[in-house]
Structures are given as structure tokens and as C-alpha cells.
Amino acid sequence: MRFLLLVLCNVLILLLNTGCVSIGTLSEKEHNNKVFSGTIRHMELSCDHGICVDLPFSLVTDVVLLPVTIPWSIYNVSTDSAQKYIKSQESQIKDISEP
């Protein structure tokens, strides 16, 4: 019984130290796509540094967050596209106005 408790405590400590990659990637501004961002990050890191323990939990968290991340990603992409369009229009106006 004592051995089982010790193993359980070690597993729990390991899980708590890995952090939640899904929640961590939501605050990053580099990527507009937030859908399954934690699972994608796990695949990019190829389970280095013992973070594979968090992969199933990140997958479940990403699935639970889908109703939030899908509209968020659509908004990010549309806002980014609109900003690029505005910049291109400004550069065209600038090119026309210069003699």
C-alpha cells in the first residue's frame, strides 16, 4: 500500500510539473490558429524533455476548448487578413501619389 501511494505521488508530481501546454499556447501571439494548439505543440517538440506525459491531457483540453478556439482562430485570421489588405491599399495609394 505504501509503495502504491509513493508511485501515485510521484506520478502526480510529474504531471503537475509539466504544465498545461494547451493553456500556455493560447496566450502566444505568434500563431493565429488556436485550434488544437497544445497538441500541435507536442507534435512539434516530439515529446522531448518528458512532456509526453501531458499529451493526452492536452488533447482532452484542446477538445474541450474547441467551442472557444474555433471562433477565436476565425477572428484572428480575419483580423490579420484585414490588416494585410489595409496595408496593401495604403502602399498602393502611396505609390500613386508619389511623382
**Count of alpha and pi helical runs:** 5
Report the principal-axis shape. elongated
Spell the H/E element sequence: HHHHH
Total E-strand runs: 0
Q: How large, in whole angstroms, is the Cα Rg?
A: 21 Å
Describe what this molecule looks like in 3D.
- The protein has 99 residues and is mainly alpha-helical.
- Helices cover 75% and strands 0% of the residues.
- The protein has helices spanning 2-18, 21-26, 37-45, 55-64, 66-97.
- Helix 3 (37-45) runs antiparallel to helix 4 (55-64).
- The chain is elongated.
- The model has no long low-confidence stretch (mean pLDDT 77).
What secondary-structure arrangement, pairings included, does this model have?
Layout: H1 2-18, H2 21-26, H3 37-45, H4 55-64, H5 66-97
Name some characteristics of this structure:
99 residues, mainly alpha, 5 helices, elongated
In short:
The chain is mainly α. It has 5 helices and no strands.
